[in-house]
Structures are given as C-alpha cells and as structure tokens.
Amino acid sequence: MKSPEELTELFRSTGRKVTAQRQCVFRVLQGDVTHPSAETVHALVSAEMETISLKTVYQTLYDLAELGEIVSLDVGTGMTRFDPNTDDLHHHLVCRRCGSVRDLVADFPQLRVPEGAELGFEVGSAEIVFRGLCPDCRSAAAPEQTSGRRQTQRSRP
Amino acid sequence: MKSPEELTELFRSTGRKVTAQRQCVFRVLQGDVTHPSAETVHALVSAEMETISLKTVYQTLYDLAELGEIVSLDVGTGMTRFDPNTDDLHHHLVCRRCGSVRDLVADFPQLRVPEGAELGFEVGSAEIVFRGLCPDCRSAAAPEQTSGRRQTQRSRP
DNA sequence: TGTTCTTCAACAATCATTGTAGATACGGAG
DNA sequence: CTCCGTATCTACAATGATTGTTGAAGAACA
Q1: CA-to-CA separations, A1 to A6, A86, B92, in angstroms, rounded
Q2: CATH class, A4-73 region
Q3: What is the pLDDT of residues A122-157, one digit of tens each?
Q4: Strand D closer than 7 Å to the CB of A18?
Q5: What are the tens digits of pLDDT across the range B101-156?
Q6: pLDDT tens readout for residues A12-53
C-alpha cells in the first residue's frame, strides 16, 4: 500500500474525492499487519473521528481494494479482512482459536496445478492458508480476540 | 463420506436419532462434487421433502462435520460450502466468476512453512485455493450459478 | 465564490446463519 | 407392539456482517 500522501494523490487522479474520513482510514491502515476487519478499522478510526460511520469505512476499503492498494480476503473468520500488503508472494497464517491473521512471506515456486487435474479450470492464482495457533493462544488461557461467531469447527479442505 | 446406510448406523451409535430428513441429506450429499452450500442442499432435499426446513439442513450438516464425515469450508463465496470428500490430500479450485468449487486432488509435499517465517504460530494444516474460471464461465456468456452477493472483487492474498 | 458531483452520516434492508418454542417422532424399555 | 423420555422437527424471530437509500454537507474545478 502506498503512503497516505500518495493515496491522496491517487484518489484525486482517479476522480475520487479526498475527505478527512478517507485520509484517516489511510493512516490507520498504514503499516498495519493484523489484517483488520472493516469493524476493526472503524474502531481504530473512531478514536480520531467519533462520528465516522461504518458505511464510510466499508466504502473507503472497497475503493482501496479496487485500486489494488489493499487486498480483501476471506479466511473463514466470519468477516472480510483487509491486507495492506499487496505482494503476490505471500500467504497467510490464521489462528483457529482467536482468528488473528498474519502474513507469511514465502515463495512456493512449485505451486502449480498438475497437468490434467485442473478439470477445465483456467487457473489464475493460488493462495495458501496455514491454520494453527497464534503465539497468544499457544500460551493456554489467553483470551479470545475477535467477536465473530465461527472460530471453532472450521475447515480443513 | 460414508454411505447413507453407514451414516445411519454411525448416527445411531453416537446417540443421534435417524430421521427421514437426515437420511435425505445423506443421499443428496452422496457423490456430490459441487461443494454445495446449505441453501443448495436445502433446495435439493426440498425436491423430495417439500416441508423440510433450512435449519434442519444446517443442523444435519453440522452433525456430519462434527463426525468428520464432511468438511465445511469458506472459500470466499459468501457462504459456507460443504465437501463430502474428507481426504486430507486435496485442495480446491474456485471460479472467481460464478463461485463454483471443485476438488483438486494433488499432494503438495513441500508445503511447509519455512523455518523462522512462522511468527510464533504453531501450524497444524495448510489449504490451497486456486482461483480462476470454471469451464462454463470460460465460454464467455455463460450464466451465473450461485445467488450469493460477492463474487467479483475478490481476494488474492 | 459558485456550481456540480461525490461523499457523508444515519438510518433501513438484505443475506447467511443461529436461537427459541411448542409440536412431533425416534428408539429403547416394558 | 406400545409407551415414554428425549432428541429433532418446523415455523418464526433474532443476530452479525454487509449493502442500499436519502437528504445534507463538502471537495474540486471553473
């Protein structure tokens, strides 16, 4: 993700208007490695702007995703997460207890669909999700973080 | 997933009661490779039992998942999908246009988190999602299948 | 500065999923 | 085979995440 200043420029140059609300979202996202949900971003932004609406946060995140400045991803924690790291060569670690998400920077060059197994699909990209326990949850009685419903009883495709 | 008869036995032996509704879900799931959503399963079952409720379908799917007979997974199509194939050595192909899901049977033995990159996580499993276009959607003007909201503007972690 | 078009906040609405309650049916005991 | 306790059923309401709507307010450009 570009810097808040560059994003301001980018928004203007693509016909989008720059507002205090949006710049606040830029700032909050800057350097964030926790893959926050829209709700989490809203909470962070609210600390500075008490009246900002959740809808506005969603709209700004949607715009950023459309511009390719952030990536929206669904790792099965019940809500869409947003990642300012748009590097193609990274994947994700997901805690199956608290739902926290971290980037795993590693290239898996052999990640190709074996010839004949693609069932007619035209494959464009591959994502890997590693599931396990985050450091906090490994230390036994650590408290849960997110408020979403389903963390237990999750997948293993 | 076991056969409907074996599932009947399994349900009984684990203290669960066997009803016509449940057996109908067993039958519908048997041999299904489309990774249906709860709603899709409900539609299929409804063809036989018009009055079955969606809640019952959810409950049965939940039970089957608890018993390890099916796997629930979230591949970002907006709803949980269910897979009667519980083989650990397979991954998924997801159409980014219509949201259809297929199994990709292939082992990726080198799918280990590089030493030092796991950020303190205790990694238990890894899933790969390959995104692209299914055969139907490749042939241009093919109609959309699922009814969910977000199919466009999806992730690429 | 004025004009115009976008974006804002505060709703209400939607979709997938889950909780509740009373009626009903399974399945082991008699 | 019938009875009874308990799990399950259906219908309906409620939840959480996300999106649509609307009138007011603000950004960008002439």
Answers
A1: 9, 7, 29
A2: mainly alpha
A3: 999 999 999 999 999 998 654 444 433 433 322 222
A4: yes
A5: 999 999 898 888 999 999 999 999 999 999 999 999 998 654 444 433 434 322 22
A6: 999 999 999 999 999 999 999 999 999 999 999 999 999 999
**Which residues lie closer than 8 Å to B72 by C-beta, 6 or more apart?**
A153, A154, A155, B61, B65, B80, B81, B82, B83
Using a CB-CB cut-off of 8 Å, the residues of chain A touching B108 are 108, 110-111
Residue found under tokens 């994502």: A127
Rounded to whole angstroms, how far apart are CA atoms B70 and B84? 4
Strand D contacted by A30 CB (< 7 A)? no
Domains of chain B, residue spans: 4-73
Positive or negative CA dihedral for B115, B118, B121, B126?
A: negative
Return the pLDDT at A140: 66
